[in-house]
What does this fold into?
Amino acid sequence: MKETPLSNCEKRFLLRAIEERKRLDGRQCYDYRNIRISFGTDYGCCIVELGKTRVLGQVSCELVSPKPNRATEGILFFNLELSPMASPAFEPGRQSELLVKLNRLLERCLRNSKCIDTESLCVVAGEKVWQIRVDLHLLNHGGNIIDAASIAAIVALCHFRRPDVSVQGEEVTLYTPEERDPVPLSIHHMPICVSFAFFQQGTYLLVDPSEQEERVMDGLLVIAMNKHREICTIQSSGGIMLLKDQVLVCSKITGVKVAEITELIQKALANDQKVRKEGGKFGFAESIPNQRITAFKIEQSPIDTDDVQEQAEEIIAKATPPSEALANPVLWAPGTAQIGEGVENSWGDFEESEKEEEEIPEEKSPTTEDQTMEMGDTSVGTKNKKDETIVLSDSEEEDVIILEPEGAQKNRAETSYKQDITSKKTGSKKKRKSYSHKKH
Amino acid sequence: MSLPEEEAGPRVPSAERLRRTRIRKRQGEPRGWRARMEREQKRFESGELPALRRIVCEQGLLSRPDGSASWMQGDTSVLVGVYGPTEVKVSKEIYDKATFEVMLKPKIGLPGVYERSREQMIKKTCEAAVLGTLHPRSSITIVLQVVTDGGSLLSTSLNATCVGLMDAGLPLNSLFSGVTCALDADGNLTLDPTAKQEKEARAVLTFAIDSTEKKVLMSSTKGTCSVEE
It folds into this structure.
């Protein structure tokens, strides 16, 4: 599905507003949208909301053999996915240009800045190292994906705990979380991307562009910086010429923003840690505001299953074989239900069995049904009234009842199935209601 | 399969009932249910009853999709986005009803066979519940994102899908809900099992049941169990 294009009016309106130093969401030029960080129940799982943009981050790890040229270094792998959930324009399974660009930028920001100590991920040099995989899913596209993704990635990495390992001689022991507390990754610094949008050939500058602003901007400058004011990555795209001063101004703004965001991240991490330590409730469910009309919680709810037993009995007693309504394919267990014309009556031969079923109401012969059997074993209940009808119930995953009105074949059927019958309930006999709908 | 469907049937309304009572509580309507709730709570605390885990849901949390919802059952959490009805690719167009596309995204890595099979199950369930004939030649896209998997993932996905469809305002002939139950070696039944319980269970059964006629829309079984169970 294609993205709805922005109309000329909207474009002009946006640009005019920007010229007047106004933004649609009421922010100032250098304001960031609200950032909200919530953590999942697993380690290394977080959702970062930047205004309406939402990114889900999940870190996982695996023991692999290292790359031959870097025998003592762990592997870091980033994967940002633009889910179709985020915007109808994103197609699943296609590497769009935007996606490649974002992934590359993320790698440069986080891997090439050496913020993660990859050497500490080495278990046995040249043989076993940890591969850390960071999966980022864009859930909602509200503009400025890269900032949200970089925050989500670094928060997830900080939150992540890998299982502890010990090496004794050649032997590598991996401890489960119950045996030994998982260990956090060693992180040197936290690079965070800040995006700047330029309009009118660089005359106007906005921090953290929203989705609509991104559509009318002329150029984009992304600066990744850590809180020590060290630039990790800088990228200018969109084909505008920037003056040296502009870049300096941007890097100054970045420094301030990064300090704010880092503080927020640390607060969020400390908060989560505290809650976990105290054994309180954590996870996404806690981060949903209670008062919102769209949100709703029920505590663990007891379900009354007291009467289930009785109900079950009742249902068994009433059980009617599923009729044609059950459109699923019939599964006949091996060695069962060869009735009617004999061998030719093969798998799922519905027409025939239906015909035979429909004959029942005419004859008015009450039939019984059986139940109970060991699994994998079919139960066949045969009950013969007026020496006319044989009911074979083959109840496996789907019940199939094939009715054979011919008395002549009764004996054959009975003898062949006798050994299969594990139990037979003759007590409850009900007329099959399901057959009364149609007369032959 | 007549038994388990009926067996699971009554539970759904009771969950629904509890839900409604909660809503009523918030709206400040009559509170005759309280005594019963307390009684049930007491019995639940004594460990007699199997229970559903805590359910939390939120609707309309994403701005881009037409309908979105997040559904959490205990630790399991699924986020859903629904687009539709929208234009459809010519190759997928069906002239008399809507085309359903379901995407289930795992949290780690790319979708595999397991996700594909789940997608099909959810798709079939939706086709049964949504009045697709009202939107011919259009597509309804449902994107599910697993946020945390703590067991009963399929039933959580089904519930999330239903809430998402509601939020998108699509015409449904009934609501549906998914229930997972696990049977252990002694034949004890666990409702809404956790991942650990699922692993230990002898059989895991999931049903999608509609809200009007309590019919089974979809069922999935894993492991061995007898018909009565």
Observations:
- The first strand of chain B starts at residue 51 and ends at 52.
